[in-house]
């Protein structure tokens, strides 16, 4: 082996490559220039590859770039050595450099063929673009599904809250109605005895005045009890078939006097309104209560609108679905509205935002109880102003033998439209 290497580097019997070119300058310098440019280019390519791989750690199969860099570097070295052998016949070293280059070329070629299937499996730019678009679409669908889920969750929580509020109102109504009923019986006994005493002491002014004051206080207590009975749905009602439009028109002047000159009362009545079967006096009291509340919500004036219309589509109010046909009476104002906390407790008895002595807090609760006792529903909405909707079931005509609509109480004033 030593003798082989010694013979490989023996140059005494060899001539430089320039002799083969007869030392012709045009050939010598053409070879020198071409090999120099190729060698410089070959040396610059590995440097670029090394800089690229060292900065991009996310590149797949980075080792193949280093293999190409070494192979190209060896090729560049062979070109520089070709310039050297034009004058120095060191063909042994040149042969070894070519052997190294050949080895690197074989290794690189085998690596490329081995890597080819994996490289072909890498998605193209178009495939990546399509995959990216599909991913964006899936993300959008997921976000839409999450938004729908959040909306459904919010709606479910809202429905559960309304159901809890409805159950609370039901429990409070039963408790209030029972207490008010018993208290009303006690007041009846008290008022009866006071009336007897009033007759017996008419000739005694001092005692008579005391008895009269006691009767007035008991009467106010009885009126308060009636409001509690209305909320508890235990007040005696006299339902009759009537047209709400005619009732509202008949009490429009009373409503205007109740709200005062600063408030404008507007009526928007459906001419084809269906009849309902309710207690006309209690419906008047309910509408008057709502008008007075609207007036108090508009101290600087505003507009009170009373609207009627028919409805038959399913409507969800306070967690309850209204089925069948109904007549809706809407009372709305342009006041400041209610906060969310006040709105949640608006129908509770004795809850009021007015100052002490300015209200009992039973107005809206009386409306709530009356509508519920009439098999209807009531809802309240407050944003820029307050809107209260009363839903009453449609009353279907049931004519009897020898009896017409005209014979029903209040029919002369109320029955303008067939049920």
Write structural notes for this entry.
The structure is a single chain. With 419 residues, the chain is of the alpha+beta class. It is built from 13 helices and nine strands. The strands form three sheets. A five-stranded mixed beta sheet has the order 2-4-7-9-8, covered by helices on one side. Strands 1-3 form a two-stranded antiparallel ribbon. Strands 5-6 form a two-stranded antiparallel sheet. Strand 8 (377-383) and strand 9 (385-393) form a beta hairpin. It starts with a helix and ends in a 5-residue tail after the last helix. Residues 399-419 have low confidence and may be disordered.
Structure summarized in a few sentences:
The protein is α+β, with helices and mostly antiparallel strands.
Specify the helix fraction band.
Answer: 55-70%
Mean of residue pLDDT?
79
Level-2 CATH architecture of the largest domain: 2-Layer Sandwich
CATH class category name of the largest domain: Alpha Beta
Number of domains: 3
Low-confidence spans = 399-419
CATH topology of the largest domain: Heat Shock Protein 90
Percentage of residues in strands: 5-15%
Q: What's the number of helices?
A: 13
Strand order of the largest sheet: 2-4-7-9-8
The end-to-end distance, rounded to whole angstroms, is 123 Å
Based on helices, strands and strand pairing, what is the structural class? alpha+beta
Shape: rod-shaped
Q: What do we call the CATH homologous superfamily of the largest domain?
A: Histidine kinase-like ATPase, C-terminal domain
Main sheet makeup? 5 strands, mixed
Q: Count all strands and give the number.
A: 9
* Rg over alpha carbons: 50 Å
């Amino acid at each position: 082996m030593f003798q082989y290497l010694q013979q490989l580097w023996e140059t005494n019997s060899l001539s430089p490559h320039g002799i083969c070119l007869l030392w012709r300058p045009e050939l010598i310098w053409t070879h020198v220039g071409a090999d120099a440019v190729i060698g410089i280019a070959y040396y610059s390519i590995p440097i670029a590859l090394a800089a690229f791989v060292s900065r991009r750690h996310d590149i797949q199969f980075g080792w193949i770039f280093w293999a190409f860099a070494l192979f190209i570097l060896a090729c560049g070295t062979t070109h520089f050595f070709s310039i050297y052998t034009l004058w120095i016949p060191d063909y042994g070293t040149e042969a070894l450099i070519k052997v190294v280059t050949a080895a690197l070329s074989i290794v690189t070629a085998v690596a490329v063929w081995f890597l080819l299937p994996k490289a072909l499996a890498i998605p193209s730019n178009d495939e990546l673009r399509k995959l990216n678009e599909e991913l964006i679409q899936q993300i959008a669908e997921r976000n839409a599904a999450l938004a729908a889920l959040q909306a459904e969750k919010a709606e479910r929580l809202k429905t559960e809250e309304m159901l809890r509020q409805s159950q609370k109102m039901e429990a409070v109504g039963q408790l209030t109605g029972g207490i008010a009923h018993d208290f009303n019986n006690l007041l009846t006994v008290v008022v009866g005895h006071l009336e007897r005493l009033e007759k017996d002491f008419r000739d005694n002014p001092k005692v008579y005045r005391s008895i009269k004051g006691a009767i007035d206080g008991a009467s106010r207590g009885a009126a308060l009890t009636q409001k509690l009975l209305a909320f508890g749905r235990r007040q005696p009602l006299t339902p009759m078939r009537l047209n709400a439009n005619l009732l509202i028109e008949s009490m429009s002047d009373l409503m205007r006097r109740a709200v005062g000159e600063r408030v404008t009362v507007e009526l928007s009545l459906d001419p084809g309104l269906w009849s309902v079967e309710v207690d006309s006096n209690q419906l008047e009291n309910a509408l008057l209560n709502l008008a007075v509340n609207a007036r108090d919500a508009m101290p600087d004036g505003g507009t009170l609108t009373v609207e009627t219309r028919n409805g038959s589509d399913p409507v969800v109010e306070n967690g309850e679905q209204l089925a069948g046909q109904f007549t809706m009476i809407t009372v709305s104002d342009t006041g400041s509205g209610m906060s969310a906390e006040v709105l949640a407790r608006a129908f509770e008895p004795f809850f009021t935002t007015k100052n002490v002595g300015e209200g009992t807090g039973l107005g809206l609760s009386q409306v709530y109880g009356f509508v519920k006792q009439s098999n209807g529903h009531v809802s309240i909405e407050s944003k820029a102003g307050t809107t209260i909707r009363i839903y009453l079931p449609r009353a279907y005509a049931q004519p009897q033998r020898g009896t017409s609509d005209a014979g029903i109480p209040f029919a002369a004033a109320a029955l303008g439209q067939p049920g």
